[in-house]
Amino acid sequence: MTYKLENFIEKIKTPVICVFDGKEHEYTDGSSLVKESFDTFWMVSDIKARDNKVVLVMKPHPAMPELKGENSFF
Length: 74
What we know:
Helices cover 7% and strands 36% of the residues.
């Protein structure tokens, strides 16, 4: 099981810098970012603009555990 990001990100038409655990990753637009899958359920904690790019600072969702290679709920 993997997690997807929030759907509103797909509407961003400019380049996006996404910050996960302090590390920046750049995407051509929100649509390309939303196509990614993650082992952690990330949520947007801050939105900024920098050099004509949208910067999304992400943090792990507090109610969802990280996937550790297990697909069972038991």
